[in-house]
């Protein structure tokens, strides 16, 4: 872990709801201050840090007096709208103590699926980093629907890592890391210290849903690491309850699980096509068409299509 992380300069840090709230009951200002202190120290040492932070909906629930996370998309959107203000204001206050500014960046899948908006978002984020401003990123929950949601901030963190070509994605959670099995059910489960992000066995080790406070589970973190690896980013899954976890990780200390990006890095446009566009339809092809496409550089002719499902237009992505 030491040789990999000590060389990382551009970092995406994702913190889950349980690490920024008081068990879902509003924001934990001491916790936010702790993240700001560590990120400020990394910034001072020459690192570029983007923070993907959950907590808006949990803060909104607290302000609205809701004890149980709602299931209605409209209630969730309302909670996010109320809570996002408090979340960003709290971060700005914490970073100002270190003479740093924070910037709010709210993204949707549509922003990243459109090539021009994708490039504009990348330019904005890299400009903010060059100004030593800390971007605070969250999904724009107030305008998205179930069909176009990222799904969780683990996925969003991976897509942001691809967007800015980060060296490492650090996913901080309330769990120690990835285990060979669920340690709550299997006493023989052991911590996975290091593995390749694309290792197919990782998905079988992970599983389970997130808490009532957040949305993600370990499986979303494994899939996020797989996405991040496509642009060459390593991923660390570690406990956010570890003292000075960010500083210690970037000093090379082995904490949590390191998932290394060992697969061939995709070209920027191919990576965008693979990860940032949503599949709009499905084609079933005959053997000849499959062979032609796999050989590379060949066009798909209508005669090779056996069946079509879904509705899509020119320029949209379909699965085969």
Keywords:
eight-stranded mixed β-sheet; 320 residues; single chain; alpha/beta
Principal-axes geometry comes out as globular
Can you tell me the CATH class of the largest domain? Alpha Beta
Parts with pLDDT < 50 across at least 5 consecutive residues: 208-216
Number of domains: 2
Rounded to the nearest angstrom, the distance between the terminal CA atoms is 38 Å
Supply the CATH superfamily name of the largest domain.
Acetylglutamate kinase-like
Architecture of the largest domain, CATH level 2?
3-Layer(aba) Sandwich
Mean pLDDT: 85
Record field, number of beta strands: 11
Instruction: Work out the radius of gyration.
Output: 20 Å
**Share of helix, binned:** 25-40%
Q: Sheet with the most strands?
A: 8 strands, mixed
| Main sheet: strand order | 3-4-2-1-5-7-8-6
Give the percentage of residues in beta strands. 15-25%
CATH topological fold name of the largest domain: Carbamate kinase
Class computed from helices, strands and strand pairing:
alpha/beta
The tally of helices reads 12
Q: What would your notes on this structure say?
A:
The protein is α/β, with parallel strands linked by helices and 320 residues long. The protein folds into two domains: 2-271, Acetylglutamate kinase-like (Carbamate kinase), CATH 3.40.1160; 278-319, no CATH class. The protein has twelve helices and eleven strands. The chain has helices spanning 2-5, 29-44, 56-64, 73-96, 109-113, 115-130, 153-164, 201-205, 218-229, 245-250, 268-275, 287-294, and strands at 10-15, 48-53, 102-107, 134-139, 168-173, 194-196, 234-239, 257-260, 279-285, 305-310, 317-319. It has an eight-stranded mixed beta sheet with strand order 3-4-2-1-5-7-8-6, with helices on both faces. Strand 1, helix 2 (29-44) and strand 2 (48-53) form a beta-alpha-beta unit. Helix 7 (153-164) runs parallel beside helix 9. The longest helix has 24 residues, at 73-96. It starts with a helix and ends with a strand. Residues 208-216 have low confidence and may be disordered.
């Amino acid at each position: 872990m030491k040789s990999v992380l000590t060389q990382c300069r551009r970092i995406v840090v994702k913190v889950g709801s349980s690490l920024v709230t008081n068990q879902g009951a509003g924001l934990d200002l001491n916790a936010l201050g702790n993240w700001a202190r560590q990120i400020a120290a990394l910034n001072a040492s020459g690192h570029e840090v983007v923070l993907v932070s959950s907590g808006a909906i949990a803060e909104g629930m607290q302000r609205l007096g809701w004890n149980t996370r709602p299931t209605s998309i409209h209630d969730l959107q309302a909670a996010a709208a109320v809570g996002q203000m408090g979340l960003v204001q709290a971060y700005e206050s914490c970073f100002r103590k270190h003479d740093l500014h924070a910037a709010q960046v709210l993204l949707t899948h549509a922003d990243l699926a459109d090539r021009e908006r994708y490039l504009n978002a990348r330019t904005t984020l890299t400009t903010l980093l060059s100004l030593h401003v800390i971007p605070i990123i969250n999904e724009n929950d107030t305008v998205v629907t179930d069909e176009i949601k990222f799904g969780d901030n683990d996925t969003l963190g991976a897509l942001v890592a691809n967007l800015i070509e980060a060296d490492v994605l650090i996913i901080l959670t309330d769990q120690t890391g990835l285990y060979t099995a669920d340690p709550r059910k299997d006493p023989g489960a052991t911590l996975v210290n290091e593995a390749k992000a694309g290792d197919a066995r990782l998905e079988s080790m992970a599983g389970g849903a997130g808490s009532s406070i957040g949305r993600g589970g370990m499986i979303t973190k494994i899939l996020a690491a797989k996405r991040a690896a496509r642009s060459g980013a390593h991923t660390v899954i570690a406990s956010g309850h570890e003292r000075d976890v960010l500083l210690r990780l970037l000093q090379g200390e082995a904490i949590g699980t390191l998932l290394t990006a060992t697969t061939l890095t995709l070209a920027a446009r191919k990576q965008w096509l693979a990860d940032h566009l949503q599949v709009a339809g499905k084609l079933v092809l005959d053997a000849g068409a499959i062979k032609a496409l796999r050989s590379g550089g060949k066009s798909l002719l209508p005669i090779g299509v056996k069946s079509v499902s879904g509705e899509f237009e020119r320029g949209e992505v379909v699965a085969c």
